[in-house]
Amino acid sequence: MPLAVHILGLAVFALGTSEFMLSGLLPDIADDMNVSIPQAGLLISAFAIGMVVGAPLLAVATLRLPRRTTLISLITVFGLGQVAGALAPNYELLFASRVISAFACAGFWAVGAAVAIAMVPLNARARAMAVMIGGLSIANVLGVPAGAFLGEHLGWRSAFWAVGAASAIALVGVATLIPRIPLPAERPRLRTELSIYRDRQVWLSIVVTALAAGGVFCAFSYLAPLLTDVAGLADSWVPTVLALFGLGALVGTTVGGRIADAHLFGVLLTGIAASTVFLVALALLAHHPAAVVTLSFLLGTSAFYTAPALNARMFNVAGAAPTLAGATTTASFNLGNAGGPWLGGAVISGGFGFAATAWAGAAMTVVAIVAVTLSLRLYRSGSRVVARSSARAQDAVATDAVATENV
How is residue 363 annotated by DSSP? Predict the structure, then answer.
């Protein structure tokens, strides 16, 4: 695996820490900003919505720009967004800083994924994406719990300062270790890239990715209050459980990345089905601390087990437009990361309690399984058509050969 792919994974560590660390900071932010926990949860949705909008927009805007320069610019803007969040005097400005950071994060993901895919052969795409997603997994193992720890002892703003510092380190790595990547001889054309959206399989991949991610993060976004208010654990347990979720994510990414290239649909179906089972169990056993802690690890494993396959599937069906394929995958994940917390907040505001977020998440993953099944049927149908066409072509060649021999 090229060194540059590992550097991209290092940068993703800073991006992922910022995106998910609010799961352990929501109660503190809500108290400091005088808003409810569901309102504070909208900061997670704000980041995700910024990713949804920013990924395709920045992918298009930077389509013909040098890749390394684009990555340097985006990680710089992201770091400045963290500083703005740390200094935000009110909820509105904190909200705005999250959106700006998300735009930069989305652009980095989209361009970085395209760069990583371009540097490896077709049969190593899932492994390349596993390296990048590994940065996200390590962010959940180390960055997110560290953010919760800092928030508990030094205030939630200290977590933003820490991510800003991590962004500066990532900037140095990108600037010094990512090689200059020449633009293709034939410059990418927007019309060609946009043509991927005519494919039903692309839209099915979007639906599957959004629902699989949204189902898990519908519950995960409110894990801190679920642990303390429902399971009855002390606040000091929150960083530990977040770290267990991240450890599960690292395990899931590693295993899924090694299997997905050979068994892509198998990984998708088994991983999303496992997430559904774990979410239902979390809803039923939310009052039992040991069960919640164990299920947090298992949810991290199942959610990130499917992530390399979800990324690789999009690049497989949208191979003619690698930049927009990366942007679309990023947008799809964060469509789920926006919709999941929003749905969870609506469930909480409706008076159903924190445990009900897991029921809502399970409903989303069930629909994702249906979408994967439909995608698999279309894939098999298309494969049969190609096989029949190939067989007819071979028969025609054989007939021509016989006729020529007879002549």
Answer: H
CB 352 within 8 A of CB 361: no
Is 361 within 8 Å of 218 (Cβ atoms)? Answer: yes
pLDDT of residue 405: 44
Tell whether the model's pLDDT for residue 93 goes beyond 60. yes
Residues contacting 44, CB < 8 A, separation 6+: 22, 23, 217, 221, 337, 338, 341
- Per-residue confidence (pLDDT) for residue 336, from 0 to 100: 87
Residues 6+ apart with CB under 8 A from 273: 369
**Cα 94 to chain centroid, rounded:** 22
- 51-55, 124-128, 180-184 — most confident range: 51-55
Q: Which of 327, 213, 309, 331 is nearest to 264 (CA)?
A: 309
Residue 249: pLDDT above 80? yes
Q: Please name which of 240, 252, 262 lies closest in space to residue 146, comparing C-alpha atoms.
A: 240
Q: What does the block give as tokens for 198?
A: 């005519």
Tell whether the model's pLDDT for residue 404 goes beyond 80: no
Distance CA 361, CA 208 (A): 13
Pairwise CA distance, residues 224 & 218, whole Å: 13
